[in-house]
Amino acid sequence: MLPYGRQSIADADVEAVTEVLRGEWLTTGPTVGSFEAELARWTGGVPCLTVTSGTAALHVAYVAAGVGPGDEVITSPLTFVATAATAAMRGARVVFADVQPDTGNLDPASVESLAGDGTKAITAVDYAGHPADYDELRVIADRTGALLIGDAAHSIGACYKDRPIGEPADLTTFSFFPTKTVTTAEGGAVAIRDRDRYARAARFRNHGLVRDPAEQRDPDHGGWHQEVHDFGLNYRLPDVLCALGISQLRRLDHFRARRADLVARYNALLGDLPGLTLPARRPYTSPSWHLYPVRIRDGRRREVYDRMRAEGIGVQVNYIPAYWHPVFADLGYRRGICPEAEAYYAEQLSLPLFPDLTDHQQDEVVERLRAILE
Questions:
Q1: What are the tens digits of pLDDT across the range 173-188?
Q2: What residue ranges define each of the domains in the chain, with the CATH number in brackets?
Q3: Nearest-angstrom CA–CA distance, 82 and 52
Q4: GO terms for molecular function, please (predicted)?
């Protein structure tokens, strides 16, 4: 089965991990800081904090933003459920805004109609690796006093109006799952502009521990003493995985360029295919394509999905609208609240896209899709 996404592991990645395995540190050591510094080169210098997954990154971001019971978080339904679930787990009331029908990104007009004094955070999702409209969302966030969060699980290395992703939002989360552009096997990170929020996030990812005697309430016990002032979790990413991440970041330019080439080939090869809508790109963005999301028109998405997979092409659907999941339905969310997102989902299909996909394999994908739709 040709997958829709797959990691690209080179000998240099194996050597980087092996070097750590032969060293003194496996868990939290010097390689963590090195990886975070390398990440900050891709966020315009915004400090980064590594964590154990993209989901953990979202959880940490909401903690750093001060999201708690009764707060309102506006986000997109066209995303993996974790974007909304981690806010709900903080006790927030999640409000789903609709998406733009061409990019699948959060629609600022829909957010504007929903945002108010109770809005604590607006979480945009860079769907498929295409940056959201951050400037328009920033105006809304500033008007309401909300923080702007970017879920950049798909878009590491992308730029919005010549600014690297990680810079336009107050907090930006990344995922390093194997299907993503850069992988640490499992892992994630948060880019955090504000120093106090960064400190809050750093404590939360390490059980809430306070080790600096100057910040402790009862410090006079000895060098072993540590305190917990607020509860936290163990979201530390170990050295061994950060070593893989550093090695992967060294090839991020290559990964992005190859993905862009494949997207351009898809666009050229599929541009005249009836019943198909290709992904859009805003001229002021430089996407970091994680997905190649097409829309299969005329109610044929299920047929195309089944037939492509039967022929060994691992197409995928990204994503079920978050509020369709039973956990949100049980909270009272009903279908129909975001018609554009639901229409997008009804037609969406992700074609294989990853750096090691060959031109020949891509030609096979196109040939089989054409055989179904023509």
A1: 999 999 999 999 999 9
A2: 11-249 (3.40.640.10), 252-373 (3.90.1150.10)
A3: 14
A4: transaminase activity
